[in-house]
Hints:
By secondary structure, this protein is mainly alpha-helical. The protein has a single domain, classed as Orthogonal Bundle (Arc Repressor Mutant, subunit A), CATH 1.10.10.10. It is built from four helices and no strands.
Amino acid sequence: MSKREGEVLAKVVKGKTNREIADEEWLSVRTIENTRYRICKKLNLEGNGALTEWIEENYQREGDR
């Protein structure tokens, strides 16, 4: 996974939306969507909710610790 993909994944794990991530990184929402797509491909995930399910199975939200 690239550095950018790791950064985006970390923000998704924290519950950030594509818009929030794009604003923080000074990128377009489309760029974040493409990055999430590449993350899913690398994790062999398919479907809109697959990344969310993967995160729920592999990470705890900060408030749950």
